[in-house]
């Protein structure tokens, strides 16, 4: 099925930096005067896993991969991008993004290997980098500063450390990748008490 290419903004930030509450608020308020939808890939994976049943698009084998990714904290690799693509396209269809609106991507692409595949679907024109130190990440997660960690079972110190290492090694290089493609890079420093409203005020 052919899907038109949508205008997109990518949120890049380590775990705990506030991507989800920021994206949710942007969906409510819009970005730069335009409507947007917030695609939180992690939340979509957890929603599918909680349902625990295959659908017309998500197969039993797909579910096994999703469970493995969630249980291990690893990234979805290139050979399984078809799963991410099905989830993204279903989300866009469900949300009915306006023609002149933006899709705000959170959690995908997570590495350069995924970027080329995502580029077929979404034209990422801007990167919002929520810059956050490891010390602040641990404290924000401990205090649930963004209000989005309730019920999360992947916030142990070891799991946080693993995510931070993956972010530095695999996700951070996306900034250089998209900058070379001409995307605007907006860096917002995230401190302990910085809220989604504060981040929106910096745009």
Number of helices: 9
Name of the top-level CATH class: Alpha Beta
The neighbouring-strand order within the major sheet is: 2-3-1-4-5
The number of distinct β-strands equals 5
Count of discrete domains: 1
Low-confidence stretches: none
> What's the pLDDT, averaged over the residues?
91
The CATH superfamily bears the name P-loop containing nucleotide triphosphate hydrolases
Distance between the termini: 35 Å
Judged by helices, strands and strand pairing, the structural class is alpha/beta
If classified by CATH, what would the architecture be?
3-Layer(aba) Sandwich
Major sheet summary line = 5 strands, parallel
The rounded Rg comes to: 16 Å
CATH fold-level name: Rossmann fold
The percent of residues in helical segments reads: 40-55%
Query: β content, as a range?
Result: 15-25%
What spatial form do the alpha-carbon principal axes imply? globular
What is the string of SSEs from the N terminus onward?
EHEHHHEHEHHHEH
Structure characterization notes:
By secondary structure, this protein is an alpha/beta fold. 47% of the residues lie in helices and 17% in strands. It has a five-stranded parallel sheet with strand order 2-3-1-4-5, sandwiched between helices. It is globular.
Strands, helices and their partners?
Elements: E1 6-13, H1 19-29, E2 36-40, H2 41-51, H3 60-72, H4 81-95, E3 102-106, H5 112-119, E4 122-131, H6 134-143, H7 157-171, H8 174-180, E5 184-189, H9 196-201
Parallel strand pairs: 1-3, 1-4, 2-3, 4-5
Properties at a glance:
five-stranded parallel sheet; alpha/beta; 203 residues; Rossmann fold; 5 strands
């Amino acid at each position: 099925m052919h899907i038109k290419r949508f205008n997109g903004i990518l949120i890049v930030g380590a775990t705990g930096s506030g991507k989800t509450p920021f994206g949710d608020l942007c969906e409510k308020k819009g970005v730069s005067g335009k409507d947007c939808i917030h695609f939180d890939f992690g939340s979509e994976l957890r929603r599918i896993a909680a349902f625990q049943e295959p659908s017309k698009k998500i197969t039993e084998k797909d579910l096994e991969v999703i469970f493995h990714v969630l249980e291990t904290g690893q990234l979805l690799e290139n050979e399984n991008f078809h799963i991410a693509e099905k989830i993204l396209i279903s989300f866009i269809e469900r949300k009915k993004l306006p023609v002149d609106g933006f899709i705000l991507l959170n959690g995908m692409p997570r590495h350069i290997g995924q970027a080329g595949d995502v580029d077929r679907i979404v034209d990422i024109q801007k990167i919002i980098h929520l810059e956050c130190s490891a010390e602040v990440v641990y404290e924000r997660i401990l205090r649930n500063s963004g209000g989005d960690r309730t019920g999360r079972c992947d916030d142990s110190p070891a799991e946080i450390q693993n995510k931070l290492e993956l972010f530095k090694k695999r996700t951070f290089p996306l900034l250089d990748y998209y900058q070379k493609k001409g995307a605007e890079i907006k860096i917002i420093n995230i401190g302990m008490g910085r809220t989604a409203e504060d981040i929106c005020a910096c745009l």
